[in-house]
Design a protein that fits this description.
single chain; Rossmann fold; binds S-adenosylmethionine; 7-stranded mixed beta sheet
Length: 213
């Protein structure tokens, strides 16, 4: 007979096929970029599938998943309780646009990761992540974005242009972001664009690092 907590875990678990598909390509890049220890703060963890996969593969790095949606937080907890250690830390509610994040120095955050968040939300969310990274990251700590991006005003593929148009139809404040705008926004928060890596399916990994103060 299945226990009540195991049943709850299954009920709240959501599935994002894209996260399952892209985790394998993202993982080795993250392993190269991230510091060898400390905590990775994930913004907009969604279902929690990335968090579980990355926490298991990247230990002893600690993985701290967060999201602004209560349903996503429940899914993250459900994936954690149904998975084998090493597991992510308990998820926290963070709205990236908030000027105060529930993160303390004891959390030892040395890096921030955010996948497929900043184009499916207003620019304020991207700006909030850049500002949060500026407040929290130690010198040289990486902020890593994964997703579709424009480069110098141009889409990198016709499919990304079509995706961008469909996003903007859903919400006029959403849309595929330009790496150049992220670099400019990052500079005002003390972050420097250091690396852009081409990924499968016309996605990029865009890394900024905290400059010395
Ligand atoms: C398309 S999902 C991506 C989830 C996951 N990172 C992935 O790659 O599968 C976007 C996520 O961003 C979250 N999100 C949207 N606005 C946010 C905000 N202001 N602060 C934090 N997370 C936000 C949503 O709740 C959602 O879980």
């Amino acid at each position: 007979m299945t226990s009540k907590s195991a049943e709850d875990a299954t009920n709240f678990r959501r599935d994002a096929p894209a996260a399952r598909r892209n985790a394998g390509a993202i993982l080795p890049i993250l392993a190269d970029i991230l510091p060898a220890s400390g905590t990775v703060l994930e913004i907009g963890s969604g279902t929690g599938q990335h968090a579980v996969i990355f926490a298991q593969a990247l230990a002893p790095i600690k993985w701290l998943p967060t999201d602004t949606s209560q349903a996503q937080l429940a899914s993250i907890s459900a994936w954690i309780s149904g998975s084998k250690p090493p597991l992510p830390l308990s998820p926290r509610k963070i709205d990236a646009t908030s000027k105060v994040w529930p993160i303390d120095t004891v959390d030892d955050v040395g890096a921030i990761f955010s996948a497929n968040v900043i184009h499916i939300s207003p620019w304020a969310v991207c700006a909030g992540i850049l500002a949060g990274a500026g407040r929290i990251l130690p010198e040289d700590g990486p902020l890593v974005f994964y997703g579709p991006f424009k480069r110098d005003g141009q889409h990198t593929a016709p499919t990304n242009a079509a995706f961008d148009a469909s996003l903007r139809l859903q919400n006029s404040e959403w849309g595929v972001r330009d790496v150049a705008d992220i670099a400019v926004g990052g500079e005002t928060e003390g972050l420097i664009l250091t690396q852009v890596i081409e990924m499968p399916a016309n996605n990029l990994i865009v890394t900024l690092r905290r400059a010395a103060t």
